[in-house]
Amino acid sequence: MTRLRVVVDANIAVAALIRPGGWTAEQLARDDVDWLAPAFLLDELAEHATEYAAKAGCGVREWRRRLAALVARVELVPATALLAVKDDKLVLAVARIDPDDAPYAAALVASGADLLWTRDEALFVALPGIAVAVVPATS
Amino acid sequence: MTPAKKFTFDVPPDLRAILDDHPEVNWTAVFRDAIRRQAVAADIARRIVEEQSDPRIAAVTASVKSRVGKRFRDAQEGKGRRAAA
Fold this sequence. Notes:
Chain A is α/β, with parallel strands linked by helices. Chain A has helices at 10-18, 23-28, 39-47, 49-56, 60-73, 79-84, 89-97, 102-111, 121-126, and strands at residues 4-8, 33-38, 74-77, 115-117, 131-132. A five-stranded parallel β-sheet of chain A has the order 3-2-1-4-5. The longest helix of chain B has 26 residues, at 27-52.
């Protein structure tokens, strides 16, 4: 069976980092899915670790430990690959609705992923059938 | 471990007539599967809502999303470290 390839939105990554025992973190531990994310997302979460750890209510060390666990499960789509598809019609369509969603659409196009996992209403509108709130079971 | 629970419920006459016409179907299994699917969906929905109502997640997501968007736009314009790399 072909494995699902799924890009995770910022809201998904953040939910898993802030609630490591929550449903989102449980889902990201699934082995039947290849998880992907734009490299910019992980750069941001690492570079502002102190600020985000404070907002999350945990220490910086704990934040970095959680982030390392996330990075171990998520394949990063490099900046060069994201920039190569910046003018793709799907990326431009998403950017017209919300420019901040463009990196995730670019990750989707660049990686050839099947789905984008999000909790962002704008993405459900922009990418019907591709943006999902729940990643379906593959078996 | 919680013991199994027995449920009893009524079906309307029109539905009962259809059920009776198909004795080859294991209706108990069909009902059990339907209840399981609905229960799991309700549980997922509750856990998602729980996370969505966590103000920490909303606050961090708002910052991250706009900054990552800016990184992507800056890279397109040749600004930023990754674009230069």
